[in-house]
Design goal:
The chain has helices spanning about 1-110, 115-120, 135-145; strands at about 115, 160. The chain is an all-alpha fold. The chain has 2 domains: about 1-105; about 110-168, no CATH class. It starts with a helix and ends in a 9-residue tail after the last strand. The model is unreliable at about 130-135 and about 150-155 (pLDDT under 50).
């Protein structure tokens, strides 16, 4: 019986050691599980922050897209205004050239008119003038002015008298 008691004591002692080993291993497993839970919680928090940041980035991107669309529309409007201004400037330049050409033509035409110095001496532009030329001279001026265009030389000056004032 002693032998049986000694074996029982030895078995109880081995069982106690096994139980203590299991308790230690369970404690280590619990510690690992807690650390794993903390790591998973940290990962979840990181994912939540990532989702929040992703949402903010998406919202900012949407606002930027709206801003870019507005800028694009503004640039299109500016391009239209520039095209219109360019067309207007070209039209103004063409009109200016045409006006300059007409002014030169008018200058050449007016340059053909000559006034006698004696008619201009002492003339008051605010008062109507009366014809002081001799009848022969008036008739010769009228005859020269009434001549057909083929008879006239375009380089010849046109001489006007006061009687011709309303004629042209």
């Amino acid at each position: 019986m002693r032998n049986l008691a000694a074996r029982s004591a030895k078995a109880a002692h081995e069982t106690a050691e096994l139980i203590e080993g299991s308790i230690g291993k369970t404690a280590a497993g619990t510690k690992i599980a807690d650390e794993t839970a903390a790591a998973l919680n940290s990962i979840v928090e990181g994912i939540q922050k990532t989702v929040t940041l992703s949402s903010e980035i998406a919202e900012a991107s949407s606002e930027q897209a709206t801003g870019i669309a507005q800028i694009d529309k503004g640039i299109e409007q500016l391009a239209t205004v520039v095209q219109n201004s360019s067309a207007t400037a070209q039209e103004a330049a063409a009109s200016s050239q045409e006006l300059a050409a007409q002014a030169e033509h008018l200058k050449a035409m007016v340059g053909r008119f000559k006034f006698r110095q004696e008619d201009l001496a002492g003339v008051d532009a605010s008062k109507p003038q009366t014809d002081t030329s001799a009848p022969d001279e008036t008739q010769s001026i009228r005859a020269a002015n009434d001549a057909s265009p083929s008879d006239k030389n375009s380089d010849q000056p046109v001489v006007l008298s006061d009687d011709d004032f309303g004629k042209y």
